[in-house]
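Async update (no meeting this week)

Hi team, since we skipped the sync, here's where things stand on the single-chain job. The sequence we agreed to prioritize is pasted below, unchanged from the tracker. I ran it this morning and attached the output directly underneath so nobody has to dig for it. Comments welcome in thread, and please keep replies under the output.
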Amino acid sequence: MLIVALLGLFVACDGRRPTVGSPESVDEASIDNVWHKAKLRGVSFRAIGQEPGWLLEITTGKEILLVTDYGQTRSRFPYVEPIVYQGERRTEYILDAYGTMVEIRGEACRDVMSGEEFSVSVTIQQADRSLQGCGRALH
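Output:
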């Protein structure tokens, strides 16, 4: 898969299980299950962010799904080939003519709610806001 190859620059699969930051967080099995289920659906990259809660799923060759506002807004975009800046360890997806863009950077990231560590940070730029979060390639 193209995204997996591209993100190979950024993502190291070290086999560690995600950590959970607080008693109010979901348990490890639930976290693993969500990511595993996405992989089984063919998702090649997944990212999450907080305040407001959002998620991104890239299915190489098919679509890019963006769910924002704690699940209230779902936007599906046709898959587009990314622009890769290898020297900068950065990948961009330009999703529409209205300025929706996904930027994936090969830099450490920690989810603010769960404390889970990721090796990739994600910024989603929309016409009226910017969303920050973390993600990983699903191998």
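Quick observations from my side:
Helices lie at 2-7, 28-40.
Residues 2-12+19-137 form one domain.
Reply here if anything looks off.
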